[in-house]
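Lab notebook, design round three. We kept the backbone fixed and only want residue identities now. Task for the bench partner: fill in a sequence for the structure below.
Input structure tokens:
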């Protein structure tokens, strides 16, 4: 339980009051400018609100209210990644110290072009174009690089260099892997932040028992999804490489045949 406190990545993300996950979400560059997406992410992980007041037993001090992940209520992962209908927490206030009384009855419909994967696709396409033109990345593109553990920029650079001839790589399958990885990282970090933030409270294990199982279940499902996406991407990359190798071989054979034809034609003169 002390792991979060000892991890330097979370030293500025340990809170002793307010909506723990909402505060952490507001520090993520790719979520700061989109309230609904931030609420969607919070609904995905769940959160704990800490406040000073009187408890049910009449004692005063730091109290808590747990808001479990809404993953059981709807197909939240599909809606988040690809679009669809979802029930999410809607914040009462949306400033950094707000969202103290979120309600879980807000239904949204996410169109495919507004889904998280689509956002990733658009950013990846823009990044590949900028790699070709040697142009600086935008703040949103830099935020995407920081949000995942994958070496995205290196992967895109290699693909752009490999394809050559002004062709751009197909980023759809990259987006599947990256989107799943970002969600996994988000859940892992959210759980670490919650653990560290409630560690000093009375009965921290009781608080965690209300939220940790849901997060861990989602992480297991995402881990499998991420593994499948990795496998599909590896197969696609291998097929592309094999196709390009065959194309180069055919081009070499055709060039050789053309040269032989020219030599034969010259011999008829």
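Proposed sequence:
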């Amino acid at each position: 339980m002390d792991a979060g406190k000892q991890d330097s990545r979370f030293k500025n993300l340990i809170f002793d009051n307010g909506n723990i996950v909402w505060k952490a979400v507001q520090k993520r560059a790719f979520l700061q400018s989109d309230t609904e997406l931030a609420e969607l992410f919070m609904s995905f992980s769940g959160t704990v609100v800490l406040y000073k007041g009187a408890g049910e037993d009449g004692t005063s001090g730091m109290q808590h209210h747990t808001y479990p992940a809404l993953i059981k209520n709807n197909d939240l992962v599909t809606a988040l990644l690809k679009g669809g209908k979802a029930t999410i927490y809607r914040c009462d206030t949306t400033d950094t110290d707000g969202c103290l009384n979120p309600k879980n009855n807000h239904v949204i419909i996410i169109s495919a072009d507004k889904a998280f994967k689509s956002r990733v696709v658009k950013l990846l396409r823009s990044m590949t174009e900028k790699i070709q033109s040697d142009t600086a990345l935008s703040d949103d593109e830099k935020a995407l690089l920081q949000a995942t553990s994958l070496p995205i920029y290196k992967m895109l650079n290699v693909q752009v260099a490999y394809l050559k001839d002004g062709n751009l790589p197909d980023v759809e399958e990259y987006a599947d892997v990256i989107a799943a990885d970002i969600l996994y990282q988000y859940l892992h970090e959210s759980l670490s932040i919650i653990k560290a933030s409630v560690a000093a409270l009375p009965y921290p294990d009781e608080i965690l028992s209300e939220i940790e199982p849901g997060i861990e279940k989602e992480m297991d499902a995402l881990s499998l999804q991420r593994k499948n996406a990795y496998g599909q991407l590896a197969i696609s990359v291998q097929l592309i490489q094999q196709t390009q190798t065959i194309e180069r071989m055919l081009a070499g054979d055709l060039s050789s045949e053309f040269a032989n034809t020219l030599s034969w034609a010259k011999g008829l003169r």
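Keep this in mind before ordering anything: The chain has a mean pLDDT of 76.
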